[in-house]
Write a structure and sequence with these properties.
The protein has 82 residues and is mainly α. It is built from 3 helices and no strands.
Length: 82
Amino acid sequence: PAQPGRKEQAVYRHLSGMSGERFDRAFAKDMIKDHEKDIAAIRKEAETGSGPAAAYAKASLPTLEKHLHMAEALESGRAADR
């Protein structure tokens, strides 16, 4: 796409009015929601798909799950494991 979609623009507007800890928590919350949605779709493809798309999904799943855990740590104020 040439520009962000409506959802991304709304998130940008929402976050752009924040700073500091309030921004961090809202950003982490949004990242958690997005990663949970993405992981569900990728997991479904990995479990039910076939061919290159399923292989890519299986290979990508651990990275997405790690990113989810990092966002959860950010939201709760913990340091994320590396």
